[in-house]
Amino acid sequence: MAIGIVGVGHLAAAMIAGLVRSGGDSRILLSPRGKARELAGLYGLDVCADNRELVERADIVILAVRPADAPAALEGLPWRAGQVVISVCAGVALSQFPKIAARIVRAMPLTATEINASPTVFYPDIPEARGLISHLGPAIALGSEDEFEVATVNAAIYGWAQDIVRQSVIWGRDHGADEGMMRQLVARTFVAAGRMIAESPEPMERILKDLVTPGGITELGLSVLDQHGQPAAWQAACDAVLARLTTAAKT
Ligand SMILES: NC(=O)c1ccc[n+]([C@@H]2O[C@H](COP(=O)([O-])OP(=O)(O)OC[C@H]3O[C@@H](n4cnc5c(N)ncnc54)[C@H](OP(=O)(O)O)[C@@H]3O)[C@@H](O)[C@H]2O)c1
Predict the structure, then answer these.
(1) For 79-128, what is each residue's pLDDT tens digit?
(2) Ligand 1, atom 41: nearest CA belongs to which residue?
(3) Nearest alpha-carbon partner for 120 in 156, 161, 159, 155
(4) Which class is domain 153-250?
(5) Distance between Cα 140 and ligand 1 center (Å)
(6) pTM
(7) Distance 89 CA to ligand 1 centre (A)
């Protein structure tokens, strides 16, 4: 199978690393811009002369251009029935793409595709898309495009989580702890927190309650965060991102 990538920038670089790392036998074809030459040299991939050649040769095409460039990037190319396009362009609704012979799927990978650890939502659930996405981490099929838009907010939450890790590491360093140790400790603590919630059947409230000793340090910190407006600020940030995504999808 041949996988073509139109738009070889930051996210595509992470996806290519993950695809290569997953060890599949698919051929990867790149569109000729951005990081294409560099990545082709690194991994021994083909760079096509133009997007026409890429669409002629590929079975699945990943569209990873900036959102404003996405609809036009599919125009005027030799699409055929049986091909699948996976658009990873945030906020670009299916209705904004031109009508083409290939089926279009939306997906929202994280840069953790690079280490095959991206939980990736996608819609609609087409087997060819599921197969490719599952090489990048857990593939999560959604039932509607509205739900996909809500779930896309998680791509921003991923960045906020990294920023909280960073802040905690810097705080520890400034209070005398070794920065490298703090980086491993805090990052792996976030992995542990996530795994406990993802892998336990218990309600989330129960899992949290089990670790909040009355009068203890977790309770103290949660109450300080509450006084400083953390829960409200977090919800407001999620609302702002969803509003941006849904406005973009309607324009
Ligand atoms: N970065 C992330 O972590 C992330 C996560 C989830 C989803 N996304 C989505 O992924 C998409 C790409 O994001 P990015 O951060 O990777 O952007 P980026 O680094 O700017 O990469 C986009 C690339 O697309 C190229 N391009 C634009 N139009 C093209 C065309 N018609 N044919 C071939 N190449 C074309 C650009 O080339 P030029 O520079 O020459 O214009 C650029 O190299 C966005 O839609 C974003 O919403 C990103």
Answers:
(1) 999 999 999 999 999 999 999 999 999 999 999 999 999 999 999 999 99
(2) 34
(3) 155
(4) mainly alpha
(5) 23
(6) 0.95
(7) 8
Strands (E), the chain: 2-6, 27-30, 46-47, 60-63, 84-87, 103-108, 120-123, 139-141
Cis peptide before 127 (omega within 30 of 0): no
Boundaries of every domain in the chain: 2-143, 153-250
Which atom of ligand 1 approaches the CA of 36 most closely?
43
In ligand 1, the atom with minimum distance to the C-alpha of 31 is 33
The closest alpha carbon to 9, from 79, 63, 80, belongs to 63
Q: What is the homologous superfamily of the domain 2-143 according to CATH?
A: NAD(P)-binding Rossmann-like Domain (3.40.50.720)
Closest residue (by CA) to atom 27 of ligand 1? 65
pLDDT digits (tens, 9 = 90+) for 148-160: 999 999 999 999 9
